[in-house]
Design brief:
This protein is mainly alpha-helical. Helix 2 crosses helix 3 and helix 4 packs across helix 5. The radius of gyration is 15 Å and the shape is globular. The relative contact order is 0.14. The N terminus is likely disordered.
Length: about 110
C-alpha cells in the first residue's frame, strides 16, 4: 500500500496546456485538440518525475528524449494548435532548470500557417 506522501505526490500534476483557450468551437475538433494537449501535459509530467523506481527513470528518460528529438513531438504540438519550436524550447529550459515555465496563457503559442 502506498504512503499518503506518495499518493499526494502522484496527485500533484502539471496541467499546462489543457486549460489554454482555443479558437475552435466545433466540439469534435475541440476534443481532439484537448487530447493532444493532454499528451503534452503527460510528457511534461513524465519528464519531471523524481524517479523512485526503474520504471519511473525509464519514463522520465523517454519523455525527455521525445520532447528533445522526436519529430512526433512537433506533430502533436501542431495538432494541439501550439507552436512546436516555442513549446519545445520552453519545456526543455524548464526541465533543465534554466527558466521557469512561461505563462502560456499570456503568450501566443498558436502555429503560424
Amino acid at each position: 500500500m502506498e504512503t499518503p506522501e506518495k499518493e499526494d505526490a502522484q496527485i500533484r500534476r502539471v496541467k499546462l496546456f489543457g486549460h489554454l483557450p482555443t479558437p475552435i468551437h466545433d466540439n469534435t475538433e475541440l476534443r481532439e485538440v484537448n487530447l493532444w494537449r493532454a499528451v503534452l501535459d503527460q510528457a511534461l509530467n513524465d519528464a519531471l518525475l523524481n524517479p523512485e523506481t526503474t520504471q519511473d527513470k525509464i519514463a522520465k528518460d523517454k519523455a525527455i528524449h521525445w520532447i528533445k528529438y522526436n519529430h512526433l513531438f512537433e506533430t502533436v504540438c501542431t495538432w494541439a494548435l501550439l507552436d512546436p519550436k516555442l513549446v519545445r524550447t520552453a519545456l526543455l529550459d524548464f526541465i533543465d532548470g534554466r527558466r521557469p515555465l512561461p505563462d502560456f496563457g499570456r503568450i501566443s503559442l498558436a502555429t503560424s500557417d
